[in-house]
Amino acid sequence: MANQTSTVSEDSQGMLRIWHILGTKEKPGLFPISKASWYAGIADGRYPRPVQIGKRAVAWNSSEINALIDDLSKNKEGHR
C-alpha cells in the first residue's frame, strides 16, 4: 500500500485558517481533533503557533502545517 501523506496546497498567501486544519461539520480537516485539543497542543509546543492576520483573526503558515503532517507521518511509520 502506498504511503498516503495528506499535505495541503498553499493558497495565495500560504496561510490556513482553523477550519482548514480542523475541518467543519460538512468537510473534514487535516487533524481529527477538537479545537480545544489543538490549542492545548499549541500551548504544549506540539503544534505550530498561529500568526495574527487581523485584529481578531489568526492563521497558520501552510508550510508549517505540511511539516507537522510530515513529522507525524514519519513518527507513525517508525512505530510500526
What is the number of E strands? 3
Summed up, the helix count is 3
Please provide the ordered H/E string of secondary-structure elements: EHHEEH
How many domains comprise the coordinates? 1
What is the spatial order of strands in the main beta sheet?
Answer: 1-3-2
Integer-rounded radius of gyration: 13 Å
> Distance between termini?
14 Å
Question: What structural class do the secondary elements suggest?
Answer: alpha+beta
Care to describe what's here?
The chain is α+β, with helices and mostly antiparallel strands and 80 residues long. The protein has one domain (15-78). It has 3 helices and 3 strands; from the N terminus they run βααββα. A 3-stranded antiparallel beta sheet has the order 1-3-2. Strand 2 and strand 3 form a beta hairpin. Mean pLDDT is 86; it is low at 1-5.
Summary of the model, kept short:
The chain has 80 residues and is of the alpha+beta class. The chain has helices at 18-22, 35-44, 62-78, and strands spanning 15-16, 51-54, 57-61.
Descriptors:
single chain, 80 residues, alpha+beta
